[in-house]
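Saturday, quiet lab. Running sequence design on the structure tokens for the scaffold JK sent over.
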């Protein structure tokens, strides 16, 4: 299996691949449950909780400043893909369009299909994080989270929620789907934060 689908990193790549990971030759699709089929015309993105409630349409995101990103992608199931090329909107740019209470310390990512995952504000509001709507120059396929997913390169990919459609800002940490089912609360690849110690 290793030779057919995955390979060990070269010596030059070694400093970019976290412990216990292998490089994928493709771009695996791992999803719990059915892939949502989302009509762009009906798509909405909401913010609430410790934020002034606001609803965005697809056109709002398309009118936002777009940026190109090249980022490594690390899945908790032990594969990594280097130099993935995305197009999207920086989280830091998006944050300028909403009003968030200073008490907000955590975020719950909500998605079409009911998936949730939690992230701290410190991990969320970073210059390298973005909402992606294209990958390798093409519209983001549904199986990879299209039409829109969050990408958080410095954490395992389950924090890069597919089909994202909302952010709930919280004062205290709440756990998302995988976090309630045994996965680590943060998920930092270099520390191999795969599973909860609780």
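Result came back. Writing it out in full:
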């Amino acid at each position: 299996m290793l030779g057919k689908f995955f390979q060990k990193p070269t010596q030059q790549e070694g400093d970019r691949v976290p412990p216990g990971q292998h490089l994928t030759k493709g771009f695996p699709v791992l999803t719990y449950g059915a892939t949502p089929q989302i009509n762009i015309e009906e798509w909405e993105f909401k913010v609430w909780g410790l934020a002034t409630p606001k609803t965005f349409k697809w056109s709002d995101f398309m009118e936002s400043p777009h940026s190109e990103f090249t980022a490594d992608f690390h899945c908790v199931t032990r594969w990594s893909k280097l130099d993935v090329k995305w197009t999207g909107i920086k989280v830091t740019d998006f944050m300028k369009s909403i009003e968030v209470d200073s008490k907000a310390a955590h975020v719950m990512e909500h998605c079409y299909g009911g998936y949730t995952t939690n992230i701290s504000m410190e991990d969320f509001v970073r210059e390298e994080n973005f909402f992606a709507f294209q990958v390798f120059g093409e519209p983001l396929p549904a199986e990879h989270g299209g039409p829109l997913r969050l990408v958080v390169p410095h954490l395992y990919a389950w924090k890069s929620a597919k089909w994202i459609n909302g952010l709930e800002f919280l004062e205290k940490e709440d756990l998302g789907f995988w976090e309630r089912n045994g996965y680590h609360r943060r998920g930092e690849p270099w520390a191999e934060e795969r599973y909860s110690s609780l």
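Notes for JK: The chain has five helices and twelve strands. The longest strand covers residues 79-90. Ask whether to fix the surface positions before the next round.
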